[in-house]
Amino acid sequence: MRFRLWASNEAVALGIVLLLVAPVAFAAPKDDVAAATMKWADTLAQDDPDKILPLYATDAVLWGTLSPAVRSGRAAMRDYFVTAFKVLPGLKVNFGDQVIRVYGSTAINTGYYTFSYVKDGETKTLPARYSFTYVLDGENWMIVDHHSSAMPSPPK
Questions:
Q1: Is it the case that residue 104 has pLDDT exceeding 90?
Q2: H or E element: which one contains 50?
Q3: 142 versus 3: which is more confidently predicted?
Q4: How far apart are CA 100 and CA 115, in angstroms?
Q5: Whole-angstrom Cα distance, residue 82 to residue 66?
Q6: What is the tens place of the pLDDT at every residue in 26-78?
Q7: 138 within 8 A of 116, measured Cβ to Cβ
Q8: Nearest Cα residue to 119 out of 83, 87, 80, 85
Q9: Which CA distances in Å does 73 have to 21, 68, 76?
Q10: Closest Cα to residue 39, out of 127, 139, 129?
């Protein structure tokens, strides 16, 4: 009887601990995707295509804000970033609202961001909307699809 009561108390305590920890476990993938997105922003600000490319899967596709064509493959993506860093010197990005959805080992982050850069000594901005699709590769969320387009002007 004494063992049964002890085992019952242990089961209740375990249940309480699992209830307390469960919300944290469910939130972690979204937090990880948000962190991967912020890592992308921090890396973009380094103006180095060779540092940003490792955040993309080897078979990733990029439809960049400045590109009239979709880019796939490392060489095409590198070319895009080389051009972007030349055209938009001192490039930085600030994220607005983000909607992150996680489906197992795939995640999508959709929202808007504003690029800033310096042209002729003056800070300029370029608001845009984006979608990043990530796939979990081990412990790293890798970008497999990135679409970005300039924010349209509101209708008049």
A1: yes
A2: helix 49-52
A3: 142
A4: 20
A5: 12
A6: 559 999 999 999 999 999 999 999 999 999 999 999 999 999 999 999 999 99
A7: no
A8: 87
A9: 41, 16, 6
A10: 139
Answer whether 102's CB lies under 8 Å from 125's CB: no
Q: In the 8-state DSSP scheme, what is residue 69?
A: S
- DSSP conformation class of 120: T
- Find out whether 43 and 53 touch, Cβ atoms under 8 Å: no
Handedness of CA 147, 107, 81, 123 (dihedral sign): positive
Alpha carbon dihedral 98, 104, 106, 109, in 10-degree steps, equals 0
Query: What DSSP designation does 64 have?
Result: -
Per-residue 3-state assignment (H helix, E strand, C coil) for 18-56: HHHHHHHHHHHHHHHHHHHHHHHHHHHCCCCHHHHHHHE
Q: In DSSP terms, which residues pair with 63 in a beta bridge?
A: 147
Sheet containing strand 71-72, edge to edge, reads 71-72, 56-63, 140-150, 122-137, 106-119, 92-103
Q: Is 156 helix (H, G, I), strand (E, B) or coil?
A: coil
Range 43-62 burial, b when 16+ CB lie within 10 A, else e = ebeebebeebeebbbeebbb
